[in-house]
């Protein structure tokens, strides 16, 4: 039997010492009318060899970003991951440990989280970071709830329509039964201006949520947006792409009160959407409303510097329904990978990733725009992601581009019906000029085929 | 296991100009950067990140790993957390490029193998629960709780009923009331009786027309199966309320009894407990939920469907009554792939054996220690039991925490302590099915020895770890939550935490209360 060490004679003797003769008798406290009287209807056990063959064949039926060049983004990106991240994070002393409740037996994990918190504050320019949340979308929801608690009596959150649509959907779900309204400020030409935001803010606005670069890849005027919020006493929540901070101004230097991010691109594999990494950092003044675990530095009885989980009176296991969040299990291993990634790349390496992505994305946009029937959708500056408009059915174009061997972009009409002809394209440092030229050729050929115009 | 030298922080090892090269140079035509992005958007200063070489980073993390306890190295009987062995085959298979390197927005024809796998996970979880409709979206158990409560709220709203309360036993995990509050409900606490079960009188008295959901954990957090569940479910049904099961303890009942057959309407799983997902030093997990058919329309979107041809799979976004999303993207797929590998490795007989052996190991271990460590509730336990050090605390001043800390000296991780809240000086012990009888006997021997040891010595335990007990009060009083820029220390003892060394980064945080 898989993973059970006790032999049948162990079992017999153990049962005997309990005065029992069968395993069945261990379950006598369960009323027999409730018991399952048949075997579970799941497939029979597979050996490791058989399972390996089976799962490998399922995996072989997928065409991932390892097989076709990836120009997909929208919050999850195909950045390069150094080998050291994979190998260090697969040390089982890290990945088979639990949450570091017993500090003396968990200094490795605790120090690593303390370093993660520090790295996130260095990256974002904020004062404090927690130990991780689930993902960028739920981090946005936690930030919303945090702002709601910090601005008691205000019952509205203003969200830029240029924020990731799935983040906005997450906010709506979290707020559905709370006395909290979400109002969307619709973008104009792919951006939300400070004037628009100012015109929408009211005395009931607890916070605004904006994204930089935004969902369309465009750069927002962050400083003006945060100032507009604060002028009405609202908090500014900013969602960022952590890779962009290798190049762009930090949200902490532009007035953000709470910064959230999807940390996947910091050394975490794509794996179809998760496990990823929810980053949340804030100003020191908001610490008591911070959701999630936090590690602090202290000393032991011998005066050694050491680390512990701290400020736990915010958390569910102590505060129960009054906790700042319900989070318990978080994304510790993903935070560890993010730290390893940042430690390996350093300031120059992260800048290089950001700069290479920028250069390649701009080259791709320039080349694509030369195809008849393709134009760049929005005029503003962008980082590593941009939208194009195609004079054709966007989904069919993407099917054709795929047939040419490229994960060529994301049709965003499902989220923005008015942008049914628009495709979102991301370019990371991993894409070569050859791949970009290939993508351009694939689009050119797709747009020449009749089927995409039907 | 332990390195006794203190480990410098990454920031203290950093040297200006040191780096690791991993990237290729640009191969696209050169342009001035500010012709691509206007300079007002560009940072003017380099990021203050540490500068390290690859070997610095490798030594750093390798060293840190050696000051952790882990399942792979230690017995880890952390109650409620199901610290079972995490099979290596799952790690290898989850890392296959065809599963690991899939972008969440790939077109469906490129992910048919993955969708099939995830569809089968939905099917397996539905069958094991006896609840046919499954959402794989929630990211952990607590998010599963929240999601299920939002499903319940949407269901009542759809029926035009307003119900404001969620009933929760006082023995419940903290995430239960926290999730109920987040979902917009008022929480009502139900007492436990002297046997550690739901106090039916109190339950009856508090159940009313405002009750939306009762959240039960069964087996409960003291490790016993509450046989009143049938009655509880019938009482709820009479009132039109729903029964939720916190599935953290599924390891006790796989293939033995199904939540749906006990009258449960909704539940979450913790695949990172029951289905062997590694805990990662705090996460990741996953929190899939399973519900009855009549609640299916309200589940998060998307779910996976099998097409009429029986061989192709698609995401179903067309769910008009859905609560929407609780996160971006599909879910914690890496954790679900491991759960798939685990369930396929076990099969129906293996799953049942998991629970049989988990319950056998817990009862056997309990029988070895319960003469000395009283177990206040239940004669037979399920997959875990909760001992109380109350007597020892009263008579000899030995507290649950002392025992927990002393166990570490014997290379064993501590049980969960001070939970559930209804047991004073609680030591919650869950050995899991993957431990051998020899390990259980050794653990019992150590526990019994500790009970005889000098209380003074125990107050100072552990004695063999890289650090002794940390000053948690100081940590919370003036929190230091990031590196304060102190000059690299030559020995750990020379560092005065919290002291401002005058660097530009120096910052000691104070909490406003
Ligand atoms: C009984 C119980 N319920 C709920 C949870 C929450 O699950 P998670 O940590 O996956 O969010 C836990 C986990 O610690 C638990 O033990």
List the helices and strands and how they pair.
The complex is a heterodimer of chains A (454) and B (513).
Chain A: H1 8-17, H2 48-60, H3 83-89, H4 92-95, H5 107-124, E1 128-129, H6 136-150, E2 156-160, H7 165-175, E3 181-185, H8 194-200, E4 205-212, H9 222-231, E5 235-240, E6 258-262, E7 278-282, E8 295-299, E9 305-309, H10 316-319, H11 332-368, E10 374-376, E11 385-390, H12 394-403, E12 410-411, E13 422-426, H13 433-448
Parallel strand pairs in A: 2-3, 2-4, 4-5, 5-6
Antiparallel strand pairs in A: 1-7, 6-7, 8-9, 10-11, 11-13, 12-13
Chain B: H1 10-13, H2 33-36, H3 54-65, H4 88-94, H5 97-100, H6 112-129, E1 133-135, H7 141-158, E2 165-169, H8 175-182, E3 186-190, H9 200-206, E4 211-217, H10 229-238, E5 242-247, E6 266-269, E7 289-291, E8 303-306, E9 313-316, H11 333-369, E10 385-388, H12 390-396, H13 400-409, E11 416-417, E12 426-429, H14 437-452, H15 455-459, H16 472-477
Parallel strand pairs in B: 2-3, 2-4, 4-5, 5-6
Antiparallel strand pairs in B: 1-7, 6-7, 8-9, 10-12, 11-12
The structure holds pyridoxal-5'-phosphate.
Brief account:
Chain A has 13 helices and 13 strands. With 454 residues, chain A is α/β, with parallel strands linked by helices. In chain B, α10 links the parallel β4 (211-217) and β5.
How would you explain this protein's 3D organization?
The complex is a heterodimer of chains A (454) and B (513). Chain A is an alpha/beta fold and 454 residues long. Chain A has 2 domains: 83-342, Type I PLP-dependent aspartate aminotransferase-like (Major domain) (Aspartate Aminotransferase, domain 2, 3-Layer(aba) Sandwich), CATH 3.40.640; 346-453, Aspartate Aminotransferase, domain 1. Chain A contains 13 helices and 13 strands. Chain A has helices at residues 8-17, 48-60, 83-89, 92-95, 107-124, 136-150, 165-175, 194-200, 222-231, 316-319, 332-368, 394-403, 433-448; strands at residues 128-129, 156-160, 181-185, 205-212, 235-240, 258-262, 278-282, 295-299, 305-309, 374-376, 385-390, 410-411, 422-426. In chain A, the strands form 3 sheets. Chain A has a 7-stranded mixed β-sheet with strand order 1-7-6-5-4-2-3, with helices on both faces. In chain A, a hairpin with an 8-residue loop joins strand 10 and strand 11 (385-390). The longest helix of chain A has 37 residues, at 332-368. Chain A is globular. Chain A starts with 7 loop residues before the first helix and ends in a 6-residue tail after the last helix. Chain B is of the alpha/beta class. Among the domains of chain B are: 1-22 and 50-67 and 472-513, no CATH class; 90-345, Aspartate Aminotransferase, domain 2. Chain B has 16 helices and 12 strands. Chain B has a 7-stranded mixed β-sheet, with helices on both faces. In chain B, strands 10-12-11 form a 3-stranded antiparallel β-sheet, with helices on one face. A two-stranded antiparallel ribbon of chain B has the order 8-9. In chain B, helix 4 (88-94) packs antiparallel against helix 11 (333-369) and helix 6 (112-129) runs parallel beside helix 11 (333-369). Chain B is globular and about 75 Å long. Chains A and B meet through helix 1, helix 2, helix 4, helix 5 and strand 1 of A and helix 3, helix 4, helix 5, helix 6 and helix 7 of B. The complex binds pyridoxal-5'-phosphate. Pyridoxal-5'-phosphate is lined by residues 80-81, 140-142, 173, 175, 217, 221, 246, 248, 270, 285, 287 of chain B.
